[in-house]
Amino acid sequence: MRRFADAPNAEELLAKAEQRPTKLDPYIDPVNQRWNEGVDTARAIHQELPTLGFNSSANIVERYRRPLRPGGHGRRRGQGAPAPTDPAIPKTRRISRSLLTHPDHLTDQDKHTLARATAGCPHLRRLHAHIRRFAAIMAQRRGHELTIWLENVEADDLPELHRLATGIRRDLDAVTNGLTLEHYSGAVEGTVTRIKQLKRDGYGRAEFDLLRARILYATTSVT
User: Fold this and answer.
1) DSSP code for 140
2) I want to staple 42 with a disulfide (CB 3.0 to 4.6 A). Which of 50, 62, 110, 204 is the partner?
């Protein structure tokens, strides 16, 4: 509802809808290539895609090809507009997922997408370097390097990361300890969550004595 309310006009709303990721996104380049080579039906192009790993229906190919046909719908063959020859721009969500995924867990397609995106954009390349450095600090408990990481981020032209750095500096000691020490508050937070659940379950139906007994039973049985 917010997306509809915030849209300044219908054209922008429809444009955003067209930018949503689809299963065809990783295969746009070969689809465009075959269209420009004269394979002008969605069904014919779709029959070639399973060898590349595509496993969806021909309808998604038809929807992508429709604007390139004469009049936007196209009943005659061989007279449609040419497909883009430049490589397709990866969707924002796909780039974000590739940036935040451990390199060892990326698929070959995601590695290719990430390489193209970072090669064409210095800001993304620097953002990727900061993400990988922070991931190493977090995974290897190198909290003593956090201050240096913050200084590098604050010196870079990446405003969104500046907000993250500002938030970390508000409670720097606690964040540093969390990225250094083996101890954590997970067990305590889990117990608090269980107690809150017991309170919600008994609200309006039990007095304090029963609630206290249930809490003691639940916490001692877990420990």
Assistant:
1) T
2) 62
The answer to the question of residue 87 being in a domain is: no
Report whether 147 contacts 179 (CB < 8 A). no
According to the 3-state scheme, what is the secondary structure of 69-87?
Answer: CHHHCCCCCCCCCCCCCCC
Q: Are residues 102 and 37 in the same domain?
A: no
Identify the domain containing residue 159 by its residue range.
92-178
Separation of alpha carbons 220 and 68, rounded Å: 67
23 within some domain: yes
Each residue of 177-206: b (16+ CB within 10 Å) or e? ebbeeeeeeeeeeeeeeeeeebeeeeeeee
Task: Note whether 172 and 217 are same-domain residues.
Answer: no
pTM: 0.55
Alpha helices in 49-171 (DSSP H): 58-65, 92-100, 108-120, 122-139, 146-155, 159-170
Instruction: Count up the domains in the chain and report the number.
Output: 3
Only one residue has tokens 């003691």, namely: 216
Q: On the CB side of 125, how many CA atoms lie within 13 Å of its CA?
A: 7
Among residues 135, 151, 188, 146, which one has the least CA distance to residue 171? 146
Q: Would you state the structure tokens that stand for residue 131, as one six-digit string?
A: 């993400």
